[in-house]
Amino acid sequence: MVSTNKLASYKHETQQNISLYINGEFTPAIGGTTIKNMNPFTNEQINEVAEGQSADINKAVAAAREAFDHGPWKTMKLKKRMAYIYRIADLIDEEIEEIAYLESLDTGLPISQTRNMVSRASENFRFYARMVESRLVGDAYQVDDEFINYTIHAPVGVAGLITPWNAPFMLETWKVAPALATGNTVVLKPAELSPLSANLLAEVIHKADLPKGVFNVVHGYGETAGDALVKHPDVQLISFTGETTTGSTIIKNSADTLKSCSMELGGKSPIIVFEDADFERALDACVWGIYSFNGERCTANSRLFVQEGIKDKFIDALKIRVANIKVGDPLESDTEVGPLIDKGHYSKVKNYLEIAIEEGTEVVTGDIPIALAKGNFVAPTLILNAENNMRVAQEEIFGPVLTVMTFEDEDEVIKLANGVDYGLAGYVWTNDIKRGHRVAHKVEAGMLWVNAQNVRDLRTPFGGSKSSGIGREGGHYGFDFYTEQKVIHVSIADHHIQQFGKI
Ligand code: NAD
Asked: Which atom of ligand 1 is nearest to 464's Cα?
């Protein structure tokens, strides 16, 4: 457990058990069962969480449906609805320290990083309030002097939002903000491994006093609660972030009820470092891009391609950096890498290090100090001398593990970078400006950065290609998903109409 002097500055000294949040009330699960929520740093129980199942999903969807069909939310004056959204953002800001603490306690993510994630969360709400006010606009089409046709955006209905554990609060708000701001009602099914901050989001939204049923949270397992949400006939859309295989299951399961699905899935993103790159900046970005968020990051640059001419120097520099990364208690402000989310994921990542050895690579890793032995720690690791067709170069490891490969020229590295099923992100480092653009255009991924680490601009489309996703959220692109476009055709003259049956 974390020491009491560390907890003293926080309001929640012990974690209460967590309920579902349905129709404006915190409520136990109908079946009365709970899930034990574990601390990844100690593997001791933090608290218990109500285990929602299909009956609870039915109840939450009924509340959200009633709020959508008969409540004030979707027809409310825009200014009033956005005032609620800004209020949620302000309330999140008041709780930054608390939410960051809960997130680090629950996930093992270092607190210096969860603080930034929480700031992004309140910005998600403010950003979408501004977007709806300024960019949720239709088009008008004049047809000679006969018609004016115009489009409007209407909310879709009940939005089912299913989120992962790797950046829980940031990703939940990334979906909740546009769904609510555009007038939908929401049932959120957070990841079962990281329920604390989703519960705090329910508390914040309760405090913001949204109309009953507009926002609901059902905790529970994916195969039961998540599945019931996906199959529910009164849910119009599913926004999902998680593993590619889960995304594929959800698309299949949502087919009978013809839902619109937005899929933000896994990645195995390349970072390409050319000989002429700014060496130190590329090194900083490469190390941050794979080892931040404990390597449990969808856009992590988990495959490094370094050009032959600088490979020895770059790999030597990487070895020094990786050996010096501060691994430790996620609640210590100078910790850079914390424990992985749970024992199951820890075993999966460790197994990849064995696979790496079987595949004939060189695995460079460190020891975990005895003091950290209770936690799910994997030391920051380099896999050297890898080949692109190996499993460690193809499969998402989702831990602090960088697979390193080399290349000779531009054509070769583009083939290597694209020789993978995923297509989420990519990073190119070169001081040849033409080449930077050229390579970025050719790498098959939804989001590319040239001479930059992963800095998000919320106005731009977010999403992946190939096995990394379907659709784009972010900016006004999210409106295509969270609203239904309707076209209204208006005759402004007496156009010709056939006169069938006229005598
Ligand atoms: P996961 O797919 O195991 O679970 C994600 C969510 O889906 C959880 O809430 C889970 O309970 C639910 N779920 C599981 N099975 C379900 C089912 N049959 N029906 C409905 N819901 C179900 O993913 P995870 O392990 O929590 O997250 C890690 C993965 O998420 C990684 O692959 C990572 O790359 C990906 N990810 C992608 C992005 C992105 O934007 N592309 C962002 C973050 C994480």
From this structure: 41
Give the Å distance between the CA of 101 and the centre of ligand 1.
22
Residues 391 and 308 in one domain: yes
Q: Please tell me whether residues 281 and 261 are part of one structural domain.
A: no
pLDDT at 8 over 50: no
Choosing from 162, 174, 396 the residue with most ligand 1 atoms within 8 A of its CB, the one to mutate for a pocket test is 162
Are the CB atoms for 171 and 163 separated by under 8 Å?
yes
Cα–Cα distance for residue pair 155/153, rounded to 1 Å: 7
Does 297 share its domain with 386? yes
Residues 91 and 230 in one domain: yes
Asked whether residue 245 falls in the same domain as residue 319, the answer is no
Site residues for ligand 1, CB cut-off 6 Å: 162-166, 171, 189, 191-192, 221-223, 226-227, 230, 241-243, 246, 249-250, 264-267, 298, 396, 398, 424, 464, 468-469
Q: Say whether both 30 and 170 belong to one domain.
A: yes
Task: Show which residues are catalytic.
Answer: 264, 298
User: Considering the entire predicted model, what is its pTM?
Assistant: 0.96
Q: What is the rounded CA–CA span in Å between residue 122 and residue 85?
A: 10
Q: Relative to the CA of 162, which ligand 1 atom is closest?
A: 9
Residue 1 pLDDT > 60? no
pLDDT at 15: 72
Give me 223's structure tokens. 């195969």
For 472, the token pair is 């784009």
- d(C-alpha 394, C-alpha 416), whole Å: 11
Q: What is the mean pLDDT of the chain?
A: 96
Ligand 1 centroid to residue 165 C-alpha, Å: 8
pLDDT at 189 over 60: yes
Atom of ligand 1 nearest to the CA of 424: 41
Distance CA 429, CA 335 (A): 27
Rg, Å, the chain Cα set: 24
Which structural domain range is residue 78 located in? 4-37+45-265+468-487
Give a yes or no: residue 24 inside a domain. yes
Residues in CB range of 3: below 8 A, 6 or more apart: none
